[in-house]
């Protein structure tokens, strides 16, 4: 039997509609939510991500602006720009596209963004808030995964959730969000002994390793829900996830594809966090 596809594109259309309605309610009160995106250098993947984020803002009718900076910009200049955007009334959310060039201290940059404009949720305060269950801005990718699971009516409480990958932007916050929903969570890393032993226990398996198609059918329990966060461009130009889609879809009960899975949801949740920031700044809570 083949798994049901969790269609991130279709879900993101529905979820964006909800956030457009919330943005429209603000606009009716002359409040236009605004996002500033900072990109440093010419990384083509980063440029593509930024243009997709801006497109999504346009679709929902938000103000957005891109600050496209040269690779050799100094940390001081970048900090100065963030200070200005922190004070800018028309900007509710600030996002710095990662990775940054080596001469810039990424942590210092992220800590400079005002926490109430930190729509990526990477500020230490927001990381701590997530940890204690008082989430302010959930990081967009795990937030998107949670919405997909919710939309697909996947039960979470009491389920074994296994996450492969422990990055600060995906694996760790994913674990916290699943834990908040009462899943029993396991995190696996490159150092995990006998990965299969863990992944085979998963009712919900989330994979975010950046290793093309590393999760095979043998890693997956019959009937599991499989979420593939990975985005990998192969030498032949194909875009694949971290999960071997064809074989795993014969074992899983539901699975996200790549492309068209988690990617569109990540962008949608950035829109959501920006609208949420504008609601908070203007005191118009839903
Ligand atoms: P990182 O490189 O920061 O982290 C990868 C993690 O995977 C690490 O914790 C690493 O373990 C673990 N890992 C690597 N190899 C193995 C292995 N063989 N077995 C178990 N664990 C392993 O990546 P990101 O989290 O930033 O991204 C992961 C993937 O998700 C990438 O393909 C990226 O492009 C994609 N991505 C997609 C997004 C979307 O919107 N769809 C958004 C963000 C990322 P260790 O810590 O021990 O090194």
Describe this structure in words.
Helix content is 41%, strand content 15%. The protein is an alpha/beta fold and 286 residues long. It folds into 2 domains: 30-115, Rossmann fold, CATH 3.40.50.10860; 140-263, 3-Layer(aba) Sandwich (Rossmann fold). It has a 6-stranded parallel β-sheet. The protein is globular. The chain binds NADPH dihydro-nicotinamide-adenine-dinucleotide phosphate. NADPH dihydro-nicotinamide-adenine-dinucleotide phosphate binds at residues 141, 164-167, 169-171, 188-192, 195, 208-211, 214, 229-232, 262-263, 266.
Summarize the model shown.
The protein is of the alpha/beta class and 286 residues long. The chain contains ten helices and eleven strands. It has helices at residues 8-27, 44-60, 75-87, 106-112, 124-131, 140-151, 171-180, 195-199, 245-248, 262-282; strands spanning 4-5, 34-40, 63-69, 93-96, 160-164, 184-188, 204-207, 225-228, 232-233, 239-240, 254-255.
Strand and helix layout:
Elements: E1 4-5, H1 8-27, E2 34-40, H2 44-60, E3 63-69, H3 75-87, E4 93-96, H4 106-112, H5 124-131, H6 140-151, E5 160-164, H7 171-180, E6 184-188, H8 195-199, E7 204-207, E8 225-228, E9 232-233, E10 239-240, H9 245-248, E11 254-255, H10 262-282
Helix pairs in contact: 1-10, 2-10, 6-7, 6-10
The site of NADPH dihydro-nicotinamide-adenine-dinucleotide phosphate has 26 residues, from α10.
